C-alpha cells in the first residue's frame, strides 16, 4: 500500500474513531433535555407568565408592570434567572413554594396578583419543567423593578398569610398532565395553567374567588371579564366548541365577539399558541361549566342590534374649525368610527373591523369594555393577523376625545347597535381612564 494511501486511510480511521468517541460522550447531568425544555416553555406560555411579568416596552420576564388593586399598585417582579435581580438563586424547591404557595425565597409572602392559588393545581412534572425552562431558557436581565408599596394593612406582607387561610387554592393534580383525557385536560388548563377564574370569577369581601360563581363574570382593571358559563342569556351557552376555539386562537369570531384589553393579551401571548387538542379540551370544559344567569343580562349579548338604515348623518354643511359647539354622539361616530365600522355599523367585509351589531361587547348590559376599547384601543397579534384600533384617550396620536365625547359616542353606539343607551357620563369615563396600563 503506497504511503500516501496509507496516511489517508489512517487519517480517516482516526477521525472516525474520534467522532464516534465524541458522539458517545453522554450529556452532562445538569444539561436539561430538549423535551423537558420544550415542555417548560409550553407550560410558561399556557400560564401566560409573560403578560404580567413584562412591562410595556420592557424586556421579557423582567417585571415592572403595575397591576392596579383596591389596595394600590402591585409592581411585578423580575423572574429571569439573573442571580441578583431575578430568581437565579432559586432552587427548584424555592420556585415551587413561590409558584404554588406564594412564598418567596426570603420567606415573605407574595401578593395574590400572582395567581399562585391557581398554579397550586399544577402537577409536579409541570412545575419541574417550568423551573427548568426559566433557569436555562430565559435570558437573564439585570434590572430590579420598583418595590410594591400598598396601603395599610396590605403593606404588611404577613397579612397575606391570613388571606391564604380563607382563599381556596387548587389541589395539585397528579400524574402526567400530557396524558389526561380531554375533559380532565380541559379542567387542568382552565383551573391551573390558564387560571380563567382569576379574571372571570367574582370575588367576595376578602377578595377571594366565590366558588359558587365560577366564571360568572367580574370587574378587572376597568374592563369587565364577562360571564363565560353555559348560561344562554348571560354567558356563552349559545357558542359552539368550534366558536370558542376560534376565539381563543384568533381573538375574534364574526357575529359573536372580539378580544381586547387583558383578554386580548391572553389570546396573543397564551391561548393562540396552544395546540388544537388543548384548545378543544379547554373549550369543551368551559362550555359545560354550570350556568350562572346574570341579573343584568336578560338576552344573549351577541344577538342585539341590526344595521342602521339611515346611516349618513352628514348635512352637507361644512363645519367651521372655530365652531366650538359640542358634537352629539352620531356626529362623533361619523367623524371617528364610521370610516372603519361603517356608517351602518356593519364593519368591513373581511371582519377586520367588526360589526357593531351582533357583537357581545356592544350588546352587553355593561358598557365597561366598550368604554375601555375607545379609551385604550385594541392591539392584538394572533392567528397571523395584527388587529389594531387606535386609542382615543388624551394620549391618542389619532384623535383625542374628551371624556364627555367618549361618553356620548359610547351611548350612541349602544343605543343604535346594541343593548340601549346606558347613560354613560364623563365622570364615569374619567374614572375608568385611571385604570389604563401604567409603567413604573
TrEMBL record:
<dbReference type="Pfam" id="PF00034">
    <property type="entry name" value="Cytochrom_C"/>
</dbReference>
<dbReference type="GO" id="GO:0016614">
    <property type="term" value="F:oxidoreductase activity, acting on CH-OH group of donors"/>
</dbReference>
<keyword id="KW-0349">Heme</keyword>
<keyword id="KW-1003">Cell membrane</keyword>
<keyword id="KW-0479">Metal-binding</keyword>
<dbReference type="InterPro" id="IPR014353">
    <property type="entry name" value="Membr-bd_ADH_cyt_c"/>
</dbReference>
<dbReference type="InterPro" id="IPR036909">
    <property type="entry name" value="Cyt_c-like_dom_sf"/>
</dbReference>
<feature type="binding site" description="covalent">
    <location>
        <position position="340"/>
    </location>
    <ligand>
        <name>heme c 3</name>
    </ligand>
</feature>
<feature type="binding site" description="covalent">
    <location>
        <position position="196"/>
    </location>
    <ligand>
        <name>heme c 2</name>
    </ligand>
</feature>
<feature type="binding site" description="covalent">
    <location>
        <position position="52"/>
    </location>
    <ligand>
        <name>heme c 1</name>
    </ligand>
</feature>
<feature type="domain" description="Cytochrome c">
    <location>
        <begin position="181"/>
        <end position="290"/>
    </location>
</feature>
<dbReference type="GO" id="GO:0009055">
    <property type="term" value="F:electron transfer activity"/>
</dbReference>
<feature type="binding site" description="axial binding residue">
    <location>
        <position position="53"/>
    </location>
    <ligand>
        <name>heme c 1</name>
    </ligand>
</feature>
<dbReference type="InterPro" id="IPR009056">
    <property type="entry name" value="Cyt_c-like_dom"/>
</dbReference>
<feature type="binding site" description="covalent">
    <location>
        <position position="337"/>
    </location>
    <ligand>
        <name>heme c 3</name>
    </ligand>
</feature>
<keyword id="KW-0732">Signal</keyword>
<dbReference type="GO" id="GO:0020037">
    <property type="term" value="F:heme binding"/>
</dbReference>
<dbReference type="InterPro" id="IPR051459">
    <property type="entry name" value="Cytochrome_c-type_DH"/>
</dbReference>
<keyword id="KW-0472">Membrane</keyword>
<feature type="signal peptide">
    <location>
        <begin position="1"/>
        <end position="29"/>
    </location>
</feature>
<dbReference type="GO" id="GO:0005506">
    <property type="term" value="F:iron ion binding"/>
</dbReference>
<dbReference type="GO" id="GO:0005886">
    <property type="term" value="C:plasma membrane"/>
</dbReference>
<keyword id="KW-0408">Iron</keyword>
<keyword id="KW-0677">Repeat</keyword>
<feature type="binding site" description="axial binding residue">
    <location>
        <position position="200"/>
    </location>
    <ligand>
        <name>heme c 2</name>
    </ligand>
</feature>
<feature type="binding site" description="axial binding residue">
    <location>
        <position position="341"/>
    </location>
    <ligand>
        <name>heme c 3</name>
    </ligand>
</feature>
<feature type="domain" description="Cytochrome c">
    <location>
        <begin position="324"/>
        <end position="417"/>
    </location>
</feature>
<protein>
    <submittedName>
        <fullName>Sorbitol dehydrogenase</fullName>
    </submittedName>
</protein>
<feature type="binding site" description="covalent">
    <location>
        <position position="49"/>
    </location>
    <ligand>
        <name>heme c 1</name>
    </ligand>
</feature>
<feature type="domain" description="Cytochrome c">
    <location>
        <begin position="35"/>
        <end position="138"/>
    </location>
</feature>
<feature type="binding site" description="covalent">
    <location>
        <position position="199"/>
    </location>
    <ligand>
        <name>heme c 2</name>
    </ligand>
</feature>
Amino acid at each position: 500500500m503506497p504511503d500516501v494511501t496509507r496516511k489517508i486511510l489512517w487519517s480517516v480511521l482516526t477521525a472516525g474513531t474520534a467522532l464516534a468517541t465524541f458522539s458517545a460522550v453522554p450529556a452532562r447531568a445538569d444539561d436539561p433535555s430538549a423535551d423537558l425544555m420544550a415542555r417548560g416553555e409550553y407550560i410558561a406560555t399556557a400560564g401566560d407568565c409573560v403578560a404580567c411579568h413584562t412591562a410595556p416596552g420592557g424586556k421579557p420576564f423582567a417585571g415592572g408592570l403595575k397591576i392596579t388593586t383596591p389596595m394600590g399598585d402591585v409592581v411585578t417582579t423580575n423572574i429571569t434567572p439573573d442571580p441578583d435581580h431575578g430568581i437565579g438563586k432559586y432552587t427548584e424547591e424555592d420556585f415551587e413554594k413561590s409558584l404554588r404557595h406564594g412564598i418567596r425565597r426570603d420567606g415573605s409572602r407574595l401578593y395574590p396578583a400572582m395567581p399562585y392559588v391557581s398554579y397550586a393545581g399544577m402537577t409536579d412534572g409541570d412545575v419541574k419543567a417550568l423551573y427548568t425552562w426559566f433557569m436555562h431558557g430565559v435570558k437573564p436581565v439585570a434590572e430590579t423593578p420598583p418595590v410594591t408599596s400598598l396601603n395599610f394593612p396590605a403593606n404588611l406582607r404577613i397579612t397575606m398569610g391570613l388571606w391564604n387561610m380563607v382563599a381556596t387554592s387548587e389541589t395539585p393534580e397528579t400524574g402526567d398532565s400530557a396524558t389526561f383525557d380531554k375533559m380532565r385536560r380541559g379542567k387542568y388548563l382552565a383551573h391551573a395553567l390558564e387560571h380563567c377564574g382569576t379574571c372571570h370569577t367574582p370575588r367576595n369581601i376578602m377578595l377571594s374567588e366565590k366558588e359558587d360563581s365560577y366564571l360568572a363574570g367580574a370587574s378587572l382593571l376597568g374592563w369587565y371579564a364577562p360571564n363565560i358559563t353555559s348560561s344562554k342569556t348571560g354567558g356563552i351557552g349559545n357558542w359552539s366548541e368550534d366558536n370558542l376555539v376560534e376565539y381563543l386562537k384568533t381573538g375574534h369570531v364574526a357575529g359573536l365577539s372580539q378580544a381586547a384589553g387583558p383578554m386580548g393579551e391572553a389570546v396573543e401571548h397564551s391561548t393562540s399558541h396552544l395546540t388544537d387538542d388543548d384548545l378543544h379540551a379547554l373549550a369543551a370544559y368551559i362550555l359545560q361549566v354550570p350556568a350562572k344567569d346574570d341579573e343584568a343580562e336578560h338576552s344573549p349579548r351577541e344577538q342585539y342590534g341590526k344595521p342602521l338604515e339611515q346611516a349618513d348623518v352628514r348635512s352637507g354643511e361644512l363645519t367651521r374649525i372655530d365652531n366650538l359647539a359640542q358634537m352629539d354622539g352620531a356626529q362623533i361616530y361619523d367623524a371617528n368610527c364610521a370610516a372603519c365600522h361603517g356608517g351602518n355599523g356593519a364593519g368591513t367585509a373581511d371582519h377586520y373591523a367588526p360589526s357593531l351589531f351582533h357583537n357581545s361587547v356592544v350588546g352587553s348590559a355593561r358598557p365597561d369594555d366598550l368604554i375601555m376599547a375607545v379609551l385604550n384601543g385594541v392591539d392584538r397579534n394572533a392567528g397571523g393577523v395584527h388587529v389594531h384600533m387606535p386609542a382615543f384617550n388624551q394620549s391618542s396620536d389619532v384623535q383625542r376625545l374628551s371624556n364627555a365625547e367618549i361618553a356620548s359616542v359610547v351611548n350612541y353606539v349602544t343605543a343604535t347597535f346594541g343593548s340601549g343607551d346606558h347613560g354613560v357620563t364623563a365622570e364615569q369615563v374619567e374614572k375608568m381612564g385611571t385604570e389604563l396600563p401604567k409603567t413604573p
